[in-house]
Amino acid sequence: MHIDLNADLGETTAGNPVADDAAMLEMVSSANVATGFHAGDPHSIAGTLKNAAGHSVTLGAHVAYHDPVGFGRRFMDYTPAELADETLYQIGALDALARVHGLTVRYVKPHGALYNTIVHHEAHAKAVIDGIKAFSPELAVMLLPGGVAVDIAEKAGLRVIREAFADRGYNPDGTLVSRREPGAVMHDPADVAQRVLQVASTGSVTAIDGSEVKVQAESVCVHGDSPGSVDLTRAVVRKLHDEGIRIEATL
What we know:
Number of helices: 8
Structural class: alpha/beta
Family: Belongs to the LamB/PxpA family.
EC number: 3.5.2.9
Largest sheet: 7 strands, parallel, barrel
Mean pLDDT: 96
Number of domains: 1
Strand order of the largest sheet: 1-2-3-4-5-6-9
Function: Catalyzes the cleavage of 5-oxoproline to form L-glutamate coupled to the hydrolysis of ATP to ADP and inorganic phosphate.
Helix content: 25-40%
InterPro entries: Glyco_hydro/deAcase_b/a-brl (IPR011330), LamB/YcsF/PxpA-like (IPR005501)
Organism: Corynebacterium wankanglinii
């Protein structure tokens, strides 16, 4: 039995880190690296990529709405053509930096508001998928199970990696609890580790009302920018090791 652990990294901007990328890269199997639109700048992103090249991680482009002030967590009313072009642009920029260090982008994971919007917003979902496919139809896309983006991606012939979250609260319908609401983020390492074990062993998560939600996820996100993220991830790694579950990338 195995599960992929991914983390959002490369989000240092103007020398101000929001995560311990080096520590996280020692534990995860996939890295969603920022592209500069919600966080990160070319030099800091290059540093994360150089570090990633020293570990056996799969590289993903963490594309976002162009919203550095809001850390990509606010909906933006793009035209589909604009969003498709910006998605393509972000993938290309990260891939160019990555190739210097012997890496290539293997998948795309939307960030923040974009990730949550394309669960239900068909036009933006199609635009993101169009941008990904324009770069390469061989790229995979990491998405929340059950959203319209999953159907659009699969119809477009893209590999979909279904994802769950180690430290985020779930609504009974499988969507994530808004960060503006109580219960949006889990902080206890034991609870987070148990959540990941639940995903890996049963393909489900427990929602905030106590109901079980089927996710059938191949990958679990441990947020690098969460308070205590390194300790949370270490707890997850220990729990999986103790249960004989390997941490292994899907690609």
